[in-house]
C-alpha cells in the first residue's frame, strides 16, 4: 500500500512539474491577457475554436482597445482569443505571425494590415489551409481576405477632417497632415478624400503643404510634428488621422505654447486627448469606438467560421450588442461598415475620457 501511495504521489509531482515548465508563448502577444497557443490540433480534437487577431504594432492604445473588443466578442461566443502584434509596424513582422498561426491551425485570423499587398501570399496560404481571413481597420487587398470591417465611411472621414480644420483656421492658411505609415490603407484612403475635398473652389485659400508620416510611433510622430513647425513657420493647422499622431502633435503644440496659433484636429482616443481638448490645443476631434470595431470583427469571424456568411454582398451578421450589419461592396471586395465618425469637443469629452 505504501509503495502504491509513493507511486501516485510521484506521478502527481511529475504532472505538476510539466505544467509549471509550460513557458509563455515566445511570440509577441499583444498583452498579458492574450490567450496562449495550445496544441495545433486542439480545435479539431474537441477543444475550443481559436480566433486570432493581429494588430499593427505593440504600444498602440487604439490597437489595445480594438483587440480588447475582439477578445470580448470571441469569449462571449465561448471560444479562445489569440491577440498578437509585432514590436514594429511592418508587414514582414506580421507575416511571421501569420505563419505561426497557420501552424497552430487557428480557425480565423482578423488582420489589421501594415501593407495592403505584401501580406497577400501569407494570407492566401492561411485561407488555403482552411483558415477564415478577414481584415479590420486597415484593410488588406481583396484577394487576401473574405470581408473587411470598416470603422466608418472613408469619404465622410476625409471630408469631415478637412471641413473641421478649415473652420478652425478661419478659412485660409497652410495645413499639414501627420499620418501613420505610408502603406496604411485606411490612412491613405482618408488622405485621398481630404485632397478631393480640398479641390472644391471654396478652399482656394487653404494650402496643404505636406503629408508627414510618424509610422504610428510616439517618438517619431513627435519628431515629425516638430519638423512640420520648423519647416513651415506659417502653418495654421495639423490634421492627424491617427491616435498616436494626434496625441504626439498635441504634446508638441502644448510644449511650444502654440495654443490658438496652430490648430489641431484628427482622430484620437478621448482618454489621451481630453487634456488637449480641455486646454483648447485641440478644439475638437473625431473617432469611433475601437472596442466596437474589434467586437464587430469577432462576431463576423465567428459567422465566417460557422458558415452563416461567406462574405458576399447581402450577407447579414447579428453582432451581439452592436446589432445587425450587412455586407456591402468595397471596390473589388466586400466590407461591413460600423458607423459614422463621432465628434468629441469640450462639451462631451469629460463623459467619454473614462470610457476609452
Concise account of the structure shown:
By secondary structure, this protein is of the alpha/beta class. Helix content is 40%, strand content 20%. The strands form 3 sheets. Strands 2-1-3-4-5-13-12-11 form an 8-stranded mixed sheet, with helices on both faces. Strands 7-6-8-9 form a 4-stranded parallel sheet, with helices on both faces. A two-stranded antiparallel sheet has the order 10-14.
Describe the model.
With 356 residues, the protein is α/β, with parallel strands linked by helices. The chain folds into two domains: 27-151 and 290-339, Rossmann fold; 154-287, 3-Layer(aba) Sandwich (Rossmann fold). The protein is 40% helix and 20% strand. The protein has eleven helices and 14 strands. The chain has helices spanning 2-20, 61-76, 91-103, 120-128, 154-168, 185-198, 218-231, 243-255, 270-279, 290-306, 349-352, and strands spanning 50-54, 80-84, 108-111, 132-136, 148-150, 173-179, 206-213, 235-240, 263-266, 284-287, 316-319, 323-330, 333-337, 342-345. The strands form three sheets. The chain has an eight-stranded mixed β-sheet with strand order 2-1-3-4-5-13-12-11, with helices on both faces. It has a four-stranded parallel β-sheet with strand order 7-6-8-9, sandwiched between helices. Strand 11 (316-319) and strand 12 form a beta hairpin. Helix 2 crosses helix 10 (290-306), helix 5 crosses helix 6 and helix 7 (218-231) crosses helix 8. The protein is elongated, with a radius of gyration of 23 Å.
